[in-house]
């Protein structure tokens, strides 16, 4: 099937505003900083910017705890700054997608503050349950409720003002909204329309697959009915890991279809991407099948959850055949309909070149960063670049706990080392160094000055998180004119997707599934597909037709760091007389 041209030929760049560019010397990135870097992004060639949240927030979870959806936090600037960014991006042909965090709000949102009064119209906007002093909501005499938060501890928090518990799957300052309540859904859709009418081009939807909760015939939530949660083992910290039973609830499709009708059905040129923990590749096909009017594409998480021993703080080395099996399931699920988002990094993941590449020498870091980019960008789907990935930025390699800022990391250290005693300090510090979300949140490295050009060298305050010392070697300025740089390689990859329809529309076929070192696959367009793809790709298609539209691409990447032979089926392809080996 030929995908919708615009977001199939598009490349999205994720900006974590707090770490991208500071322009007022307070050590935090801001909106004016993003606007000041639009020419860099236009030169890179990206089509869409996804901004992590910049709304009013107490910043408990760095803005994923929103206190006012329709205002900008002073940390980042003002609504006027946002309007300027939208206008300046559009002037360069770049779209702006914002982060929609509506599974939960901040506990400082007016809706939640009102909800703490059981007689207020907002009383039922969150998940409140009667309290038995000191016991999470459950059934007397039965199993205690062990629903665990993603950020450790119980997912239930007692509120003395209301005298009841409220559900929070993330931090206790992130109470879950009650999507069963039509008034909640109406308020969310009104806010979404307000932003789209203001000129943004879509949303990345934070944990959107958690909004429909499972309740039993008496309306009881998992764990509340006294049963052990879905027979899940209680984790080593005494709580049940939420993922397996919290995602993809009974009204998931209904809510997404309603949102599509109320917000997107009369619009065009937008992009919706759902963050979908706990969703299978098969469910991805249904949710992203345009005929179902739900979402354009999803981030799936199996590939960034499988390389650890039961918990992210016990990392395992990359099992390449395992990665190939997972990506093959993503590709198979959308070969006929639907679409997928391609990523290896974001603000929650460690830097991919440190995780699956080799950053131990400059040569290996550059080579492996390029290899990982080539592998990702030539898959079928829309690729996402996380800020700094195009430079081959690495993990932070922090050595002491006080360098970390992320509440997920700090909570985990306290709970696992100091409370549950399930990991040693050394093992946990190694786990944080490998997998903490802060690895992706060190300031963007623009040049080799004191704070990497993220903030002025003479800024009155240090950046909110340490700049990586390797910024003196790894920075945008050093790569801007180097044709062999990681940056130059990303530019060529992005251009290839714009010029060659086979990259967006070609069928994907894996070669050498079990090869432990080499990742090889083809993309191919049959004649009909080629003509459709060229027609659908607009003027990019015309250029490609003129330049000679490739019918087939062979990609072979050695991700092992050891020498490896070309897999036999790749060699056979290269011998095929209609493959122009000079262009491989
Ligand atoms: O992430 C949800 C989520 O699944 C992550 O918390 C992930 O499970 C974890 O970080 C990996 O160990 C979204 C946002 O991307 C994240 O930044 C927020 O903290 C979270 O939701 C709550 O809004
Ligand atoms: Ca600032």
UniProtKB/TrEMBL annotation:
CDD domains: AmyAc_SI_OligoGlu_DGase. PANTHER family: ALPHA-AMYLASE FAMILY MEMBER, NEUTRAL AND BASIC AMINO ACID TRANSPORT PROTEIN RBAT. It comes from the Bacteria. InterPro entries: GH (IPR017853), GH13_cat_dom (IPR006047), Glyco_hydro_b (IPR013780), O16G_dom_2 (IPR045857). Residues 14-441 form the Glycosyl hydrolase family 13 catalytic domain. Keywords: Glycosidase, Hydrolase. This is Glucan 1,6-alpha-glucosidase. One of its GO terms (molecular function) is alpha-amylase activity. Transmembrane segments: none annotated. It comes from Bifidobacterium moraviense. Belongs to the glycosyl hydrolase 13 family. GO terms for biological process: oligosaccharide catabolic process.
